[in-house]
Amino acid sequence: MIWKGFRFGLLLQIAVGPICLFIFQTAAGSGFWAAEIGVLGVTFVDVFYILAAIFGIGAILAKYKKTKGIIHYIGAAILIVFGLSNILGFWGISLIRSLDFHSEQSTHSVFWKTLVLTLSNPLTILFWAGVFSAKIGEENLKQKDLYIFGIGAVLSTFIFLTIISAVGTILTLFLAPILLRVLNFSVGLVLIAFGIRIVVKAR
């Protein structure tokens, strides 16, 4: 069951999202270990979301549509603020000092940034609730099996993002400082695009 969860988690990683880009950017700008602290932050939130889905919080969120809408907008706002901070950092401007992306970051700040970014989409709980419901229906899984499946999915996230951290660290050896700034700028645009897409879907 762990292997099934791991394979499913890897399929999810194929769709590169803002978290993956942020980890890559952090590795390129601040090194492997700083990025790996970010990976731990992502893993921590994933564990929380999966447990919440198993405990039935996803069903509660699905019932109250207004709550879903509010969560969508909050998540979109977080992504857009992070994106704008990245873009302004290209010119050395820090939108919010704690979100200063263009300079080397401490492991402490990286952890909290990835925590906030990952938490920006709590509707992930609904996704996992749907997955677990389907698994229960298709394979008649018990709650213990759901936990094991979830462990496999979390492991896939941790391993995949660790590889992204390593790739980002290696590539930074070949990138000039201006290219790193361009990378930060590009990631900022992508984050804003993700935020706008969430708003459009919410409407």
Write the layout of secondary structure elements.
Layout: H1 2-14, H2 18-30, H3 32-54, H4 57-63, H5 65-89, H6 107-119, H7 124-139, H8 143-171, H9 177-202
Helix pairs in contact: 1-8, 2-3, 2-6, 2-8, 2-9, 3-6, 3-7, 3-8, 4-7, 5-9
Can you give a write-up of this model?
It contains nine helices and no strands. With 203 residues, the chain is mainly alpha-helical. The protein has one domain. Mean pLDDT is 79; it is low at 98-103.
Number of helices: 9
The helicity comes to over 70%
DSSP summary, beta strand count:
0
Mean pLDDT: 79
Q: Which of globular, elongated, flat, extended, rod-shaped describes the shape?
A: globular
Strand content of the residues, in percent?
A: under 5%
What would you call the structural class? Answer: mainly alpha
Radius of gyration, CA atoms, in whole angstroms:
18 Å
Biggest sheet architecture: none
Uncertain residue segments: 98-103
Name some characteristics of this structure.
9 helices; 203 residues; mainly alpha
